[in-house]
Design a protein that fits this description.
single chain; two-stranded antiparallel sheet; binds iron/sulfur cluster; globular; 8 helices; alpha+beta
């Protein structure tokens, strides 16, 4: 059997005042977009590390206030997360799916699957008001920390943690992190598609079953093009 090969290149990116040089390794063969998600996670980690450098971050393990916010997830990340859930031991998978079903029972009737006519701001305010914990949240910590979505990585605050639980989030000071997560949204589709993470299972029942295969470097080029950034 032929050995799988990868390519590594150092991406040099500018985002505002940040300058990032990050080595990224991706498969050479044509693969589904979800196969480059780990490489994109590494890139976002590097961007976040540069953005938070020198700042006093308040976020700590065991504080899951922000895990009750609407987490927008792209098709590509959704497919990766479905693989992750499918690979869980049976009992644990069942528990996670029960939590998704409970969230779905609240969110679908409330119109979070069909978001026509609602602004992102209206949706996130209405979502947070429901106080629904993310199905992956356990003991106020992320149970999939290494695999969490890109947008979760980009959210850090310097304000006192108790403010994050406030109904209007008054006084919360997020770190200005360039939103590289947006590059994943149009990786497979032309439109800026996303769905709330808590509706992962509902989305999976109506998601497209086929998708393009591209080489790892081609997916990364597409991701960077979506961001309008050079390397
Ligand atoms: S995936 Fe993890 S970090 Fe993101 S909202 Fe859920 S529990 Fe929180």
């Amino acid at each position: 059997m032929a050995e799988k090969t990868t390519s590594t290149a150092t991406l040099r990116l500018s985002a505002g005042e940040l300058r990032i040089a990050h080595p990224i390794t991706v498969p050479d063969a044509p693969v589904p977009a979800r196969d480059v998600v780990p490489a994109l996670q590494g890139l976002v980690n590097a961007v976040v590390a540069a953005a938070e450098s020198g700042k006093a971050i308040s976020c700590r393990k065991g504080c899951g206030a922000c895990c009750r916010q609407l987490v927008p997830v792209s098709r590509t990340e959704g497919e990766r997360l479905l693989d992750l859930v499918d690979a869980l031991p049976k009992e644990r998978r069942g528990e996670i799916k029960r939590r998704f079903a409970a969230a779905e029972a609240v969110l679908v009737p409330a119109g979070f699957m069909d978001r026509t006519g609602k602004t992102d701001r209206e949706l996130s305010t209405a979502y947070f008001a429901r106080g629904l914990p993310c199905p992956f949240l356990e003991e106020e910590s992320c149970s999939i920390h290494a695999d969490r979505p890109l947008v979760c990585r980009e959210y850090l605050v310097t304000s006192p943690p108790e403010l994050c639980a406030g109904p209007a989030q008054d006084g919360v000071t997020p770190v200005a992190v360039p939103k590289f997560s947006l590059g994943a949204r149009k990786l497979q589709e032309e439109k800026d598609g996303w769905f709330p993470l808590a509706l992962l299972m509902a989305w999976s029942r109506q998601r497209p079953r086929t998708g393009a295969r591209r080489t790892g470097p081609e997916w990364v080029q597409r991701f960077l093009k979506n961001l309008g950034t050079g390397h």
